[in-house]
Amino acid sequence: MDGRPGADPDTVTVLWCTTDGDERTRARALLLRSAAAMLDVPESEVWVEHEPGGRPYLGGAGGGLRVSVAHTRGALAIALSQRWPVGVDVEGVRELRAAAMGRAWFHPAEADWIGGLPERERPLAFLWLWTQKEAVGKALGRGLRDGGMSRAVPLPSQWPPGPRPSLVPRPLPEPRDVLSLAIGVDGGRHVVGVALHRDGAEGSGEGAVRLQVRRV
């Protein structure tokens, strides 16, 4: 089996790490290094460019890869796919007025779910959905514009999340060709949201998607 990250075209590779600063520069360096390893080319043959809206894409030998980058204070994450547009987001778990924020911004079913949880679980639950929404917006290439905050994402099938989280992304209620999931990392101190846009690709059913998540 090929040991390179994401060598299987049906695999979405997500790499994350904690940092002590300079997250933007480190995320860019990790993206270039990982893309070069995935393609088995020298790092000098891959470079980062940006669309007018700011979304990163790879030039040179990396032109066929779909990528996404996210960073927050103390952590960063990248996603790479050889097949589908992808999005990734990372957030630190912290105290939030989660129920009120959910009612203000999220789909009513999501707000009801957050509000029905014990108060101590609500900040994590809010970020579980928030990171997916951010990732979905990136995968679709339009951020949170046009109702992205209220666009429903899959509610967890298990809560609180267990020690062995599912790595199978699930379809959004709408559009159905977008899949997403969230996972806790760093001992539960951060949440990473991931999304991919299958965009009608043949053979891209839910069961065909594999997610590889690794700390680097």
Polypeptide structure, described:
This protein has 216 residues and is α+β, with helices and mostly antiparallel strands. It has one domain. Helix content is 24%, strand content 29%. A four-stranded mixed β-sheet has the order 4-5-1-10, covered by helices on one side. Strands 6-9-8-7 form a four-stranded antiparallel β-sheet. A two-stranded antiparallel sheet has the order 2-3. Strand 2 and strand 3 form a beta hairpin. Helix 2 packs antiparallel against helix 3. The protein is globular, with a radius of gyration of 17 Å. This is 4'-phosphopantetheinyl transferase domain-containing protein. One of its GO terms (molecular function) is holo-[acyl-carrier-protein] synthase activity. It holds the Pfam family ACPS.
Choose one word for the global shape.
globular
Overall mean confidence score, pLDDT? 92
Q: Write out the strand line-up for the largest beta sheet, numbering strands in chain order.
A: 4-5-1-10
How many structural domains can be distinguished in the coordinates? 1
**Poorly predicted regions:** none
Pfam families: ACPS
GO cellular component, one term: cytosol
Keywords: Transferase
GO molecular function: holo-[acyl-carrier-protein] synthase activity; magnesium ion binding
